[in-house]
Specification:
Oligomer: single chain
Strand order of the largest sheet: 1-2-3-4-6-5
Number of helices: 4
CATH class: Alpha Beta
Helix content: 25-40%
Distance between the termini: 27 Å
Length: about 140
C-alpha cells in the first residue's frame, strides 16, 4: 500500500481560486475532483458534527488501484469510491476490490460507489452504488 499526502481545502471555491479556475466555467475534467473533495469534506464534517470517532483516509495500491475515501469506525471499514458520472459499472469497482483484499483481517463493512444518480444498484462482487446524498444519510446512521 502506498501513502501520499492529500490536501483538502475547507472550501472548493478556495481550491478553484488557487488553481485559477474561478474566472471560467468548471470544465468536465475538473468536475470529478470537485465532487470528490466536496463529498470527502461532507464526511469529515458529518463525523465531527455527530461526534463520531471515524478514522478517515484514502487508499492506493502499488498497482495503481485507488479508493477515494476510507472510513473506519465501530462498524468496521467502508471503502467509498466517488464518481461524478450518472452511470457506473463493474469496472469502477477495481479499487474497492483491491482494498477489501488488503484489509481482509479487518472488518470491511461495505464497499460503496457514491455517484450522481437517483438509483441504487448492487454488483455481483458486493459493491453497492449509492446516490451521493443517500450515501451521506446512510453513513450518518452508522
Amino acid at each position: 500500500m502506498l501513502q501520499r499526502e492529500r490536501v483538502l481545502l475547507f472550501d472548493v471555491g478556495v481550491r478553484n481560486a488557487l488553481l485559477r479556475l474561478h474566472d471560467r466555467p468548471l470544465g468536465v475534467d475538473q468536475a470529478g475532483s470537485v465532487l470528490e473533495q466536496w463529498v470527502i469534506l461532507q464526511v469529515v464534517h458529518l463525523g465531527r458534527a455527530l461526534k463520531k470517532s471515524w478514522k478517515i483516509s484514502s487508499y492506493r495500491s502499488e498497482a495503481g488501484a485507488e479508493v477515494d475515501l476510507v472510513v473506519e469506525g465501530s462498524f468496521g471499514t467502508i471503502g467509498i469510491e466517488i464518481k461524478h458520472s450518472r452511470n457506473v459499472s463493474i469496472r469502477d469497482t477495481r479499487g474497492l476490490t483491491s482494498l477489501a483484499e488488503v484489509v481482509r483481517g479487518a472488518k470491511v463493512a461495505q464497499k460503496w460507489i457514491v455517484y450522481r444518480s437517483d438509483r441504487r444498484q448492487r454488483f455481483d462482487n458486493g459493491v453497492e452504488a449509492i446516490p451521493v446524498l443517500q450515501g451521506l444519510h446512510t453513513l450518518a446512521e452508522l
